[in-house]
Design brief:
Shape: globular
Helix content: 25-40%
Radius of gyration: 20 Å
Number of helices: 11
Distance between the termini: 29 Å
Structural class: alpha/beta
Order of helices and strands: EEEHEEHEHHHHHEHEHEEHHEE
């Protein structure tokens, strides 16, 4: 599969009253056509910041200090706002973590889908409306004509999430970034939403970046896994290789702490320590080193290596397991 999105050495900082927060450090990965790439890690590790940086959705306090995000032959980080506007929604789209917060509460959901269609594919109102209904049908929303007139608060959480995906996919983009798309949904609705994303991936050759801290979901859904800790990518691996043979100490700890891998609460093994303060001036080259039982003098020697230890399996560690 060819690379659809290639992120290289992406570094990002936020300017705060107390100084700069180095949120991302040389982040790099590829998203490919017809593939679901899982971006996993603890809450606050930089997954959403990465997605927002790629699509130009960061606030005024954020500054990309280095890197590139090549998409369809263009570096998204170098485009002007108007150029990005023409890409977002048409070629690349995002499903936000909370559909309830992302949807406009005073506009019908059908109108919100139609807004995206009209923005990128100018056509008569009747054609735009039909395309919006088609997007709802593709998401298996029953009785789309009636539901299109509903406001977000009149729909269930799962239905709102389907509308959010319909908005993202209405113009048949090549790339979809799904940021915790099943947060707050019951298990049955989670499965239905992920089945829809999986089906769109296979049917349309869609490239998907799935942001999640749910390792069980990633193991069922993703083709490859990218592990992030404190703004750094520490391991990239095919799904089976990651879940059966993780090599970075953080990846091993992450799997050991997952409820799905424990027979009882007593079997859960939390990762000791806490993530470093990213506003520190003395951040170590390896941001996991202060929590790592395998730390040695070499770990402080310089920037992390990126070691290929198998097909599509890369570890950023001086002493992989």
């Amino acid at each position: 599969m060819s690379a659809l999105l290639k992120v290289t050495n992406l570094s990002l900082e936020f300017c705060t009253r107390s100084g700069a927060v180095r949120a991302l450090d040389s982040v790099g990965f590829e998203a490919r056509e017809g593939e679901i790439l899982g971006l996993v890690g603890e809450s606050g590790c930089g997954k959403t910041a990465t997605a927002h940086a790629i699509l130009g959705l960061l606030g005024a306090s954020a500054r990309v200090t280095s890197g590139s995000a090549e998409f369809l032959g263009r570096d998204l980080l170098r485009l002007k706002p108007a150029e990005l506007d023409s890409i977002r929604g048409r070629d690349a789209a995002i499903v936000f973590q909370s559909a309830s917060a992302a949807l406009n509460p005073v506009r019908s959901v059908g109108a919100q889908i139609a807004d995206v269609v009209a923005r990128h594919t100018p056509a008569p109102a009747s054609v735009v409306r039909e395309k919006a209904l088609d997007a709802m049908r593709a998401m298996r929303i029953a009785d789309p004509e009636r539901r299109s007139r509903a406001f977000p608060h009149e729909l269930s959480g799962g239905m709102r999430q389907r509308v959010g995906i319909a908005i993202a996919l209405a113009c048949t983009p090549r790339l979809l970034i799904a940021d915790e798309p099943t947060t707050g949904l019951d298990v049955t609705t989670q499965a239905a939403v992920m089945d829809l994303i999986h089906a769109m991936t296979r049917e349309r050759g869609l490239g998907v970046v799935l942001i999640t801290h749910d390792l069980a979901l990633a193991s069922r859904t993703c083709d490859r896994i990218v592990v992030m800790h404190a703004g750094q990518i520490v391991e990239t691996a095919p799904r089976e290789g990651f879940f059966t043979g993780p090599r970075h100490p953080y990846s091993v700890g992450l799997l050991r702490s997952a409820p799905a891998n424990a027979a009882s609460l007593d079997d859960l093994k939390p990762i000791e320590g806490v993530a470093p303060d990213l506003s520190r001036a003395d951040l170590p080259h390896c941001r996991f080193s202060e929590r790592c039982a395998r730390r040695a003098a070499v770990c402080d020697a310089g920037p992390l290596p990126r070691e290929a230890i198998g097909p599509d399996h890369i570890v950023s560690c001086w002493r992989p397991m």
